[in-house]
Each structure stands twice: as C-alpha cells, then as structure tokens.
C-alpha cells in the first residue's frame, strides 16, 4: 500500500510579548513561541501508479493541544502551510494530517490520514524534529471478469457498495474504487446471457479493512461440481497479506431459480413499511390491521447467518418465531398482528412510540436479503400533536375529536412566558420567528383537553461557504494553475475545469472583478465561460456546482452534493448572463422520456438549480441515462426539496440581475440529522448533453441561503 512521510520541523525562537499584568504591576512578561515548518515527502511504496501523489492532494492540517482542542487548522497544506512559518506557543501538541475530501466511495481516490504518535514538545530555544506516516485509511476494490464469463454473457456489471456509498463497475471499468473501511462490502452482479435472460447475484465480503486491496474475480464454474448457483472463495496473496482475491464461480446451468434471499412484508401503510396504529381509543380496544401484517422469509440455498435487530423498549425481548428449517425449504410466513396485540396491555403509553425491526439473512452463497419495518403506536389521548421544526419556524399538527378552540401553546427553554397560536381548520399552525439551534416546548389544545408537553429543537441556519465568491485559490492540475472558490474547511465548490486542461482553451471557471457593486465589501464574482475544447468534443459549458468532478474520457463523472445540517427555504443571489448563438445543436433526450429540439443559431439558455437531498448522487455525461431528471424514480426518492431558475429568466440580462429561488419541499416530512445540498450552475442549460453555444458566459455573485418561512415551500 502507498504510504507518505510527512516531515515536520520546528524552529523555535524567542519573541517578547509585552503586556501589563495589572494596573499596579509594571513588570513585563516574556512568552516563548516557536516557528513550525511542515514539509511532505513521498515514500517509494505505491498502491497504484494511477493515483496522483499525495503532494498534489489537498491536505488538511490540524494542530491540537494534548487535551484535544484544535489550536490551528489549515484547509490546504500547499496553499496555507508549505514554506510558511507557523507560530506556536511553547507547549505539547499533536499534529493530524488528512485528505480534505469525502472518503465515502470514489474512483482512484485514496483517503490519507496520519498523526504524530507521541505529543510534540515545543521547547524554548530548541529545534524539534518529528515525522508523520500518512497511511491510506480506506479500502481499495477492483473487479475483473474472466474470459469464460465474457463468452457466455453479453452484458454484465457489478454494483459494489458499503454503508458510505456505491460504485458501478461496468464491463469495461478497470479503475480501482476506494471505500470507507469497516463493516461489510456488498457486491451485486448483474448478468444477461445470449438468450436475453437476466440474473442478479449478490455476495458479501465481511469486515473490510483499511489499506487492503480486495479484487473481485468473476468466472464460470467449469469444475463439474454439483453445488448450485455459484461458489465463493477467498485467498490471500502469500507475498502480500493485504492483497485479497475473492473468487466468485458461477454455474450457468443452475442460475435459474437461485436468487437472493427473499425478505418482505405486506399489509403496511406505505412503501417505507411503516404502520401507524392506535390500539386504544377512548378506553376501547381498536381492531387489528386488516389485511393482516405478514412477514415472509425465504432462503432456499441455506442460511449462513441471520440477524434480527429490534429498536424498541417494548419488543426488544420478543421472539418472532423464526424457523430456519421452514425458511430454507419452502419459506416461512409470520403473522405480525400477534405482536401488535401486546400493545393492548401496555401501561404508561403517554406519547407516540416508534418500534423498528431490521432482519438480515446471508445464505450459503453469501447472498444477502434485508427487510425493515416499523410500528408507530399512538397513545389514547384526547389531543395529539407532532412537530416539524426547521431553522426559524416549526410546522405543528394536532388531532382531536373536539373541534372547538383548537390551538397550540409554545415557549422557549428556560423561559416562563408562553405564546398561543390559533390552529387552522385542519388543526395545523406555523410558528415563526424562532431562533436556530434552540430548544422549545409546546402542547396542543382543543376545547378543555390538551396533549402532553412535547419538545423540539430548531435546526441550525448554516451559511453557504464562500457564497459571495470573494475568495479564490489556485490549484495545479496537469501543470496548469486552476482557480476555484476557496473552501472554508473543506472543498465545497467544484467545476469541470480539469476535463479540458492542456487544450489551449479558455477556463470554464475563473474569478472576475466584474461584481455586484451594490453590495458592500464585495471583492470578486464567479465567471463561467463555455467553449469548444477540441475537435472531438462539440461543447464544454461553463459550470460551477457543489460536489466533485473526475475526468471520464471526453466527459466527466460528477458526484453532486455537500453535507448540510439544515433545510433552507430559498437560494438568493445575482447572475449576469450573456448567451451565445447555438453552434452545437441537436436533440436533448431526457432519461425519463420526452425530448427538446435545440435548433442551430437559436439563443442559448443558462441554468441555476438547487436540490436538498437525502444523500449524494452521481451523474456521468458519457451516460445520459444517469443525468439529473426529477421525473426519474431515483431522483424522486432522493430529492426532498427543489428549485430552479424559471425558463423566462434563463435568457440574456443587461448586467447583474437578482434572483430568489424558493424551494418546493417535495418531501416536507422527511427529517434527518444530515442532508446534502446540490447547487448546479451552467452557462448552457443543456451542457450535460453537449448541446448549446460555445460562447455563452454566466457570471454569479453573492449567493445566500434563506431560512425564513415561505408558504410556497409547502404547496
């Protein structure tokens, strides 16, 4: 595996820091400080020659006290640390160096981390030398297909995933993928034979380790043995124990009818397998769900492992009655209504309770099946309520048989005064003017009845890192200095710049002094310039987005989304668009169907959109079926809020024009501790399809997230 030695030199010097101890004491004090010089050296041990050296990586440097407090932090070693004198007071320190990027799942992108083994003692007047070994902290995975498999199957691809992300290894994919280590790695192989029959096989590699290389090798099993479906064997290279070869042998005659374990539930309220039920109403038992709730478990090739995880204080001791013999013969059906009967006898059910179940089966062929389901149990109260808290407002909902004088009362933590808001005809209300990251209490009332007192904490109101595009830094790529908006603590903004380096064309992204003059202390703006990079590429649209870009042939693979710990209601900013005449014309065919004809010499259009997502998503301009399309099921499920610049505003402007994109919450009830924000801007609306003008220009300035309540967010 590749390791890097990060050498750190401390040159200590005395500085006099004069200060007045008190009004009555005129003695001066002397404090010692040291100068920290940090350099990077590369070891000659390499994991792959396709990975760029760590000296070209954006490395984060953290200098911490022995108590764990961060004394100084630098986002970019090359820009902020290399060759610089870093002043530190005398004391003991720990230095941590790591890649300044997401370590989830990415092509040819190892994640490096290292730290000093012992505290570094910075002493007055002395020189301290130390070094850090920076090791790869994630796991390398490659996939290969033997000729025997290629001859029988006309199409195949392997989807490799961990809890941190996934990568798709197509039949022609030779790159190495890097995944966050720890936990299991799942490989899901898709096959299509010459007769058009399609198959899916799934395998699990347990407890993947950092600095290890797992090579998944698929081939047809021609041994003549009788074991059905496929075999699985793991061997270790005796010359390098970190090299793990996972051989997966497929028997073509036994593929039919040997799928992954089947785990499913029926009778639940929605696709999320959640059932909401009130066992007692006004003291009387309510009927059990109809149709009955049924859990089906089937694993016909035997069970290697079965796990049942129950998140519940009421059901954690329950026996589901799982029978492995039935599961492996004909399958087992379990009636879950028997579980719900227990809720009739529960005591002290004073608030809504959620009880979650997760069942995983790994069969004898290392195939995995998973099912999850939840019961939401409602107490027998005259008035019930729930809340959806954003940053500066909260949506309250109540329910009661009493329709008289429905209202809510709320108050801030550690305050005694309360505020009452009247509910609408649906027993709902919006409370506004709340402070971000603050705890509140509330209760719902109807007539002379009231709910239990409940609490909620508002979300933070995160600022958009470098949203004004005032700060820029230079990053060397392919021996050229490229400009990017400077990150605050990590890379936030990116561009497809590096796709066309060395082709003698204008930069797709750069800074500009042509900025909004009505904003105080405004220094720079972003300049997006479309161009024609080479004869074999029709168009490269100027672009800027939140995410990561990797070259893929004449196109690019883009991982969209950056972490966000709040849900904004708007994106505001300024844009200045100068469109060119379309010289790369054609038909845009959307992944969900439908098309748009873009004629030659028509005027180009720009694009600005924002999406709040459950997780990151990846698109590849070489594969139009992967491009962003809100009508596709994958994006419908992932995107919880969306807004875009209206079509009538995607045209020429005379100088800067202000915009305010109000987010429409498509899934307003989705609440999580972390979201992902995708902001995508392009000088050509259909640049992903290589259609538009090669001379369009889009300038952007003063982007800002809004958090105030807007009823249009919840239409």
Which labels suit this protein?
Immunoglobulin-like, nine-stranded antiparallel sheet, disordered N terminus, 715 residues, single chain, mainly beta, 5 domains, 54 strands, 4% helix
Description:
By secondary structure, the protein is mainly beta. The protein folds into five domains: 33-136, Carboxypeptidase-like, regulatory domain (Immunoglobulin-like, Sandwich), CATH 2.60.40.1120; 139-254; 262-377, Immunoglobulin-like (Sandwich); 383-458, Immunoglobulins (Immunoglobulin-like, Sandwich); 473-713, Jelly Rolls (Sandwich). Helix content is 4%, strand content 47%. The protein has five helices and 54 strands. The strands form twelve sheets. Strands 1, 2, 3, 4, 5, 6, 8, 9 and 10 form a nine-stranded antiparallel β-sheet that branches. Strands 39, 42, 43, 44, 48, 49, 50, 52 and 53 form a nine-stranded antiparallel β-sheet that branches. Strands 7-14-11-17-19-18 form a six-stranded mixed β-sheet. Strand 46 (586-589) and strand 47 form a beta hairpin. The two termini are 53 Å apart. Residues 1-31, 41-51 and 226-230 have low confidence and may be disordered.
